[in-house]
Model the fold of this input.
Amino acid sequence: MITRNYPDAIYCCPYCKTKTSNSVIEFDEINKPKKFSKRVFYKLICMTCNNSYFLYEDIKQKHLLKDKDIPSVNKVLNSQWGVDNQRIIYPQQIYTTQVPAPSKYMPEDVKKMYKEAANVFEISPRSSAALIRLTLELLLKRYLVNDGRKHTLNEMIGMLSPNTPSLVMEFMDLIRDKGNSEVHPELEKLEHEWGDITREPDKDEILYLFKYINFVCGLVGLRNKANKDFESLPEQKRKDITKRNQKYQD
Ligand SMILES: [Zn+2]
Done:
């Protein structure tokens, strides 16, 4: 690893949000440098608030660049090279990205896993999709099925189907399916469509998984609350409601 110090780099600090001078330490990834591209890590220390943060740059030979306008932290970068991608990796700014905050009906341990999924969303949307699937699994196992036995996610969703609104079922199946396909692409695809498994994951699609699980928690939470509230209505009122409904059945 090579470290270099730069005296001055003007960047917007993610802590104090000031555009200010930073001192920089560069870490070159490299044991065996690649010929056409490399990833370089930088630690920046904000001169205004003194906090440090980390970012990386994918550096490529100029003729391979997609975006030619990103200035490198390294002001003395060799003129044949340029920055293809630059990203802050620490601190992770979970809720400043598009990931929604967890539903208030989400149990605490489930919420913890949801946040883990949110944490990795920017660096690895694919892991994030897999973690949301696990989050759903935990929700079902501990709170919705909760019979002390072992079931697959697929089975647990099926077990809920008699008493669960179809929209909730659809959301759960979408999370199951999408989370799975991000981790275990089908074998045929592995063999015949390399393009498909090495494709960039669709971040917008994965963001929907966060929305779906929030919605599942919201609907289930609201349903439980409504059931409880309904139970506490005076008996006569409940009878009247049942009577009214019977009138419209058949
Ligand atoms: Zn700062």
Q: What stands out?
A: DSSP finds eight helices and five strands in the chain. The chain has two domains: 2-91, 95-236.
